[in-house]
Amino acid sequence: MERFVCTVCGYVYDKEEGDPDNGIEPGTAFEELPDDWVCPECGVGKEDFEPEGAEEEEEEGEEP
Ligand SMILES: [Zn+2]
Question: Is the pTM of this model over 0.70?
Answer without folding.
Answer: yes
